[in-house]
Amino acid sequence: MKKAAIVLSLLLVLLGMARHASARDMAIGFSPYLETGIAEAQLNAVLKFLAETLEPGDRCILFDAYHVQTLGTFVVPDKAVYRQPKAKIQANRQAVGAMVQFARTAKRPHGESDPSVVGAIRLPQALRFIGQDYPVIQDADVILLGSPIYDDPKEKLFTMRLNHVPGDGHLTKARSVTPYGIKGQESLLAKRRVHLAFLDDWKQDDHHAYFVQRFWTLFVEGQGGQLSSFTHDLPTLFHRVKSNAPSPRHDYKIEPTDKLEMILMRPPTVKQQTSIYERPLSTAPLPESVIRQASRVEVGITWECGGCDLDLYGQHEPGATTIWFLSTQTKDGQYFRDFRTSPRSANGYETLAYHVPVDLNHLLLAVNFYNGQSPGGVKGEVRISLNGQTYAMPFHVLAQEGNGGVGRQETLTARRATNAAWLVIDPMEVLGIRAPYTVVSQR
Known about the structure:
The protein is an alpha/beta fold. It has two domains: about 20-240, Rossmann fold; about 265-430, no CATH class. It is built from eleven helices and 16 strands. Helix 2 packs across helix 3 and helix 2 packs antiparallel against helix 4. The N and C termini lie far apart (about 95 Å). Residues about 5-20 and about 440-443 have low confidence and may be disordered.
């Protein structure tokens, strides 16, 4: 009899362990930067979802995804009586109260210490917080309700505002170097399905949205997780969580680069124009007056090596701030990537657009072979558009591999190439005013 009782006790323990092992584990992060009415509506939808979805033994961590701190834990006691939604809410009065207070104090961003993004969350830090402080032994869901645009006033160099997207080089670095760094965290999000729901007013267009979703997908997958949902439709997200939906299939691949650049997508100031790479070419001569004070000047480069990364630099006069991938916006103009039919994060076509009149006699254009290998060097085309006309000229960088920008300052200061990975282009040659040199790059 005693032996039977011991066996029965062990069986009950094992059954309890089995139930616990299969319990749903979830985390939901909220933004404190919303209008109060929107925050309260969002909270009501979340509480309804939790009350209908979680079963006895399940839990959900509730946290502030911007300040990265726990607000409470919604736990369903492991008893049959707590299968009813009202009973679940009643059992979590403290957590619900904390969330109601959080929603009531939500506000739109204002002031220098606040981010400039409605619905702001610090997505990298939020996922690191969950991955480190709440480890799991089985598949679990992380729901983030906030903007996919990262903006922290303390890290202005890494903001995604104004249509900036982190380049893939960030994913090769440690988090001490960049907030997007994931080096050494390959399993931090293992067994995690990440779901992101946002207000649908953050993107410039679908093109911009593609690259933002692409980056966060690679960011999550690089840490062993899945980006299972990326949507503005909260009911759709909840349905995907309930059904344990996997990440949608994609063909994203991390580009081989170590550049810590924030890529500026084609901005609104030039968005309405046809891309410089799609405009008809001109050979019409330009009067000297136009050359000395050219308006609507754009410069772009394309190249033939798909695995190579070239960088364009522009300085509209000696001493002016150089426009390049680490200085994408100045008082004179802006640098951006012009992705066309085959978008690539690291190797989009380089383009400069000037907002001020430019004397083309003083315009410095330099090209650097930054990364990759190409026997025989890299051939490409440079285009200059001004006053409604576009001119083109082929170029050839002689170096057979990239040099990571070595010789940058020397080249820009001397206004001539200082090694074979650099090429300085004379705008007068592109416009057909001056014959090209026979040597296209100097050591």
